[in-house]
User: Which sequence fits this backbone?
């Protein structure tokens, strides 16, 4: 489980006096616990991955704002946090692997045009899960169906 690994890594970061890493790990643990309380159940692995993905996206948005505000120091801190979070995420598929998966899904589902893009996306999200970025996947599907 991701949450168990984060708890172990918090202990390691405490021992090694890694303050920045410790802050990130504690915020992740807090996000997981908050979601568990909200759902009133233990989180599944997919739910943990979803939370981590949202944390990365949030920090990426913050980086853009910090760079617009000429705050490189804060942008660098957010980049560090993203690096830490990504160590817990599954390795994303390459663009070549995504294109192959899209072609296979289009052939398997016998899709003929853009009107069926939703069916393809639903099938791909179910089969690829969190290993595929939705924006990239959407653009590849749109390109193949056009």
Assistant:
């Amino acid at each position: 489980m991701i949450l168990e690994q984060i708890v172990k890594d918090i202990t390691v970061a405490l021992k090694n006096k890694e303050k920045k890493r410790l802050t990130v790990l504690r915020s992740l643990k807090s996000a997981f616990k908050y979601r568990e309380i909200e759902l009133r159940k233990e989180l599944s692995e997919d739910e943990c991955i979803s939370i981590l993905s949202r944390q990365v996206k949030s920090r990426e948005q913050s980086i853009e704002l910090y760079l617009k505000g000429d705050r490189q120091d804060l942008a660098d801190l957010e980049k560090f946090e993203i690096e830490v979070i990504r160590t817990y995420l599954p390795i994303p598929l390459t663009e070549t692997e995504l294109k192959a998966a899209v072609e296979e899904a289009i052939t398997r589902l016998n899709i003929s045009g853009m009107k069926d893009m939703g069916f393809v996306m639903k099938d791909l999200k179910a089969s690829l899960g969190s290993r595929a970025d939705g924006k990239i996947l959407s653009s590849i599907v749109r390109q193949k169906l056009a």
Q: What stands out?
A: Residues 9 and 25 are 8 Å apart (CA to CA). Helices lie at 2-16, 19-39, 45-68, 72-86, 95-109, 117-128, 134-145.
